[in-house]
Design a protein that fits this description.
The chain is an alpha/beta fold. Strand 6, helix 3 and strand 7 form a beta-alpha-beta unit. The longest helix has 17 residues. Bound molecules: zinc ion. The site of zinc ion has 4 residues, from loops. Zinc ion (ZN) binds next to loops.
Length: 411
């Protein structure tokens, strides 16, 4: 096949013998067929469907079919302190692009059809997004922040996935620089974190003026803003300035959670990052970082529970590469299991991985649920994910844009 000219990127098919998981209503519809035409769901009908223009008919053997998952905290170029991180840091542009393309393919094959990247190196995320959109590379739909904006010496500094800025003017310029490169959203590092040697999780890092300049500039250009954030007082200040989403939220209080709920600020809790010892060991992460991470776990869990209590919208985000094999499944599914075990009911957990992130990203007209007119991005598994996210461990069928990218019946 020639690589020049249009590549096939939209499929048609009829899917039969399945249970459709309605994430909006939190119920299953049995005895239906899904007809997919040119990448979108053309019909959902009773029985076996009327068939689509001679396109393949797939019998899913009674599987449960749910929308493709959306992971809101991803880094395809993640490099933590340690031996593996150093190897990634040392990659040249070509090596990095290939490494990220491999991660994108694995991510899609594990059922994640859309990701939100929140700090990537070398602006390779934009090239990767173009390659996926044009069908040259297999991967999820990408919404990306480009480089994250940090203060000098702030969280994530010293790696190519952040841009250091100081003062309101530089933060406004930082926002515009990412938008010029193609950013769909903006990521700010407003406090310290786990992976920074010279900071703690509670170190405030941006001034009010810097946050205000970044958030107002992004909003003026129609981009939402999310922030890596730990301590409650810093988060309260940013939320009051219009912040749209909080990453991690290691040390939330009931007060700041109520403020977030009232302002509609979402939380991507990334619970797995304070419970990831095996992952850290695999990457050769140094002891100081492991201690800080695992030591923050209990407070992190309390924060998450306070957010649920206050009615904050919570969204799936793994931080670890979403496909990473971890505790018998992938990082993304393990994160959903933690979200469920710590108090989110099963239907809400599934919404946190589908329709809720689609809505935050502004693509809920196309993604996040299985409805006529939406993209045919879907996954299938033998058990019902409305009984609990562990059903996703056995996910064995993935379709994106109407094209089957993984089929457990043959692979
Ligand atoms: Zn992260």
């Amino acid at each position: 096949m020639s690589v020049i000219g249009p590549l096939p990127s939209k499929g048609s098919a009829t899917l039969q013998n399945l249970h459709l998981v309605d994430v909006v209503e939190g119920r299953v519809r049995s005895g239906v067929a899904i007809e997919v035409r040119d990448g979108r769901i053309a019909a959902i009908s009773s029985g076996s469907g009327s068939g689509v223009d001679g396109a393949p008919v797939l019998d899913l053997g009674g599987a449960y079919v749910a929308p493709g998952l959306i992971n809101m905290h991803t880094h395809f170029s993640l490099s933590l302190p340690g031996a593996v991180g150093a190897e990634i840091e040392a990659m040249d542009a070509a090596g990095l692009a290939l490494y990220m393309a491999d991660g994108a393919r694995r991510t899609l094959h594990n059922g994640i059809t859309t990701v939100r990247c929140v700090a990537e190196k070398g602006h390779a995320d934009f090239a990767l997004r173009r390659a996926i959109e044009s069908g040259r590379v297999e991967g999820p739909r990408i919404h990306t922040a480009g480089r994250a904006l940090a203060c000098t010496g702030g969280h994530g500094h010293g790696s190519d996935d952040t841009m250091e800025c100081d003062g309101a003017d530089e933060f406004a310029r930082g926002v515009r620089t990412q938008i010029r490169a193609g950013a769909d959203l903006i990521k700010l590092m407003i406090s310290g974190g786990i992976a920074g040697e010279h900071e703690t999780i509670t170190t405030p890092q941006l001034t009010g003026e810097e946050m205000a300049a970044a958030i107002s500039t992004a909003h003026a250009w129609g981009r939402k803003v999310t922030a890596h954030a730990g301590p409650a007082d810093v988060i309260a200040q940013a939320v009051a300035l219009g912040l749209d989403c909080v990453e991690h939220g290691y040390e939330l209080t009931p007060e700041v959670c109520r403020l977030m709920a009232a302002r509609g600020t979402a939380l991507v809790p990334t619970l797995i990052v304070t419970r990831a010892q095996a992952f850290f060991d695999e990457l050769g992460v140094p002891a100081w970082m492991q201690e800080r991470s695992l030591g923050a776990g209990e407070r992190h869990r309390q924060s998450y529970r306070a957010a649920l209590e206050a009615g904050v919208e919570v969204l799936l985000g793994s931080d670890m590469p979403p496909f990473w094999p971890f505790e018998g499944t992938t990082a993304a599914v393990r994160e959903l299991e933690h979200m469920h075990a710590d108090g989110l009911d099963a239907a809400a957990t599934l919404r946190a991985a589908t329709i809720a992130p689609a809505s935050w990203l502004g693509v809920d007209g196309d993604a996040g649920s299985l409805e006529v007119g939406k993209w045919a991005d879907l996954v299938a598994m033998p058990q019902n994910p409305l009984d609990g996210p562990s059903a996703l461990r056995d996910l064995d069928f993935v379709m994106k844009d109407g094209i089957v990218v993984r089929d457990g019946r043959t692979s």
